[in-house]
Structures are given as C-alpha cells and as structure tokens.
Amino acid sequence: MMNSEAHAELPGVSTKKVWAIGGGKGGVGKSLVSANVAICLALMGNKVVAVDLDLGGANLHTCLGLPIPQVTLSDYVSKKITNFSDLLVSTPISNLKIISGAQDELGMANLKHMHKNQIIRKLHELDADYILFDLGAGTAFNTIDFFITADKGVLVVLPEPTSIENTYRFIKSVFYRRLKMIEGVSDIEHLINESMNAKVTAGRASPAELMKKISDVSPDVGYRVRQEMGLFRPNLIINQVRSQADIDIGYSIQSICRKYFGLEMSFPGYLDYDQSVWQSVRKRKPLLIEYPNSKLVNNFDRIVNRLIES
Ligand SMILES: Nc1ncnc2c1ncn2[C@@H]1O[C@H](COP(=O)(O)OP(=O)(O)OP(=O)(O)O)[C@@H](O)[C@H]1O
Ligand SMILES: [Mg+2]
After folding, report:
1. pLDDT at position 58, please?
2. From ligand 2's centre to the CA of 56, what distance in Å?
3. Residue 209 lies in a domain
4. DSSP string for the chain
5. Positions in the chain short of pLDDT 70
6. Which pLDDT score, from 0 to 100, does residue 12 have?
7. How many structural domains are present in the chain?
8. Residue 57: its pLDDT value, please?
9. Is residue 95 part of a domain?
10. What confidence score (pLDDT) does residue 194 get?
11. Which of 47, 96, 217, 254 has its CA 20 to 30 A from that of 70?
C-alpha cells in the first residue's frame, strides 16, 4: 500500500482514467501527443479533459488550435476562481475540454505542496472518461508527482542521445520517489539513498540490484516493494521517427529498463517525423483535424488503441 500523501488524499484515484504525458526533455512532443491523444479519445465518443500542467510555459491550447484561454490554473491558485470546474474551457471538438496552465509568473511552477495536492485531487475528481495531463519538461518534484498520481504514464522520447538520457533520468526520479512512498521502507532508507546517489556506471548499485538487497535485508518489505513497483509500467512513445533504427531505440530502451531498473515498459508505438506537425502548429490548428490524411493519423490510432487495451 502506498502511504503517499497524494494517494491518501485522493479518493477513487483508480476509478478514473488519468493519463500523464511526460518526458525528461523540452520540445520532444509532449503537448502534440497530449492534444492529439485527447482528440482521438474524444472522437471515439469519450468525455475528455486535457490539462496543461506545464506550469512554466503552457502551450497545449496552441496544439489544439485554441486562443490563449481566459481562465487558467493560476486563477484557481490566486482564488480568483473558487469553483474548480469553472476552469474548464470548451473546444471546437465536442466531448473535449481543456484546463489551461498558467500564463503568468505567479510562481505556479513552484506550486506549494498544499496547493499541489488540492489541485491533483480536484483533477482526479473531474467528471470525464479520460483526463490527460500534459506535463512540463524536467524532473521537478511537481512534475514527478503529477506523473505518479496518474493511472497511466506515457513518456515521449526523441531518437537522440540527449532525449534518451533525460528519459532514464525521469524514470529514475519516478522510481525512487515511488519507492520512498511505500509503507515500511523507512527502515531501509539508507539503502535507497545509497543506490540513488550512486553513479549510473556502478552496475552493482542499480535499482534492480537495490530490489534484491531489500529482499535480503527484509523479505517482507522486499515483497511489498516488488508488488508496488511491479505496477509501475510506463508507456514509451518514440517521436519524430525517420527510420527503422529510430523505432528500434524503443526496444533497446525497454531492454535497458528491464536490466537496470528491473521494470517492464510498454511500447505502444511511435510517431513518424512529418511536416504536417509543424505546419499545423504554425496554422494553430489541431493536427488530426487539419491533416486527416497525415501518416500520424494511423500512428495515433494505434497508440491510443493500445493504451486503451493495456
Ligand atoms: N512527429 C513530428 N514531426 C515533425 N515535427 C514534430 C513532431 N513532433 C514534434 N514536432 C515539432 O516539435 C515541436 C515541439 O513539440 P511540442 O510542443 O509538442 O513539445 P513539448 O514536449 O510539449 O515541448 P515543451 O517541453 O516545450 O512543452 C512542435 O511544435 C513541432 O514543430
Ligand atoms: Mg508542451
């Protein structure tokens, strides 16, 4: 059982379908994926809310072809708006609403603990079939917490070394944060910290090795940790694919995660590099609506269906 404050305060977390879209690096396509996955789900007849949680540089609305929304999360934090559902903004796609991130420098990126938990709870309580979190870049605590509370985590990665490195860094942050939330691990916190601060090159200090060590020290805690961490199964999307070799990077990330973190990762699909993406962004129109013949329509279709099934 998780003793995370966030989970403890979140009634019915598991009954809602909250998907978080993250990735360690900026500009990898998180907002593109959030917007178009949201459109796919809405076109399938689901009630969808897409939430811009990139609190430092919100731009989900652009990927959906919307003007800068009049109400944003900062209006809720500053108490200008007291009813959370008043933050919902309609889009031209029926069934799809958005909640916009902050457009100002109100310190939203450094959202205080209490506010963060309150916002997470309100988001999970929204009346919708699917709630999508478009996260900001990096591994800030807020971003990791939004990711952890989701039912499904999606990581967008570009087939280039910097993006791949940042993906491992992101998974590592989530891994240790989740681990530390498990009840009973405080006794072995020194082992966790030791492993967390070890150099990645020190194979014996890998998270997978840590799991073994925990079981040696305490079979009971080891069992619980395995159960909890077994539920952590992030979904990988390789974006801007130009060759089979790019697609294969997805499989190698899967196998490295198995060896190093001891965790299984799903690979629901990839997105081709396509001119229609930046053309649609430039036109401020949603890709799937503006370019229904783009290669990306099939890409998204496959990804969304696999995410629904998994
Ligand atoms: N499959 C693709 N083909 C072509 N261009 C793409 C593709 N995916 C993303 N891009 C380009 O990358 C840009 C960045 O995408 P996006 O804004 O979705 O990234 P992000 O991860 O949300 O960035 P940030 O971290 O700044 O929020 C897009 O505007 C587009 O120009
Ligand atoms: Mg973005």
Report:
1. 78
2. 10
3. no
4. -B--HHHHT-TTGGGSEEEEEE-SSTTSSHHHHHHHHHHHHHHTT--EEEEEE-TTS--HHHHTT-PPPSSBHHHHHTTS---GGGG-EE-SSTTEEEEB---S-SSGGG--HHHHHHHHHHHHHSS-SEEEEEEPSS--HHHHHHHHHSSEEEEEE-SSHHHHHHHHHHHHHHHHHHHHHBTTGGGGHHHHHHHHHS-TT-GGGSHHHHHHHHHHH-HHHHHHHHHHHHT---EEEEEEE-SHHHHHHHHHHHHHHHHHH----EEEEEEE--HHHHHHHHHT--HHHH-TTSHHHHHHHHHHHHHHH-
5. 1-16, 103-110, 200-204
6. 42
7. 1
8. 76
9. yes
10. 85
11. 47
Whether 226 is covered by a domain: the verdict is no
pLDDT at position 203 is: 56
Task: Give the pTM.
Answer: 0.91
Which domain covers residue 104, as residue numbers? 5-160+235-257+265-309
- CB of 251 closer than 6 A to ligand 1? no
**Substitution candidate for ligand 1 out of 25, 28, 30, 32 with most atoms within 8 A of CB:** 32
CATH of the domain at 151: 3.40.50.300
Is ligand 1 within 6 A of the CB of residue 27? yes
Question: What pLDDT, in 10s, does the model give residues 124-161?
Answer: 999 999 999 999 888 888 889 999 999 999 999 999 99
* Spacing, Cα 278 to ligand 1 middle (Å): 8
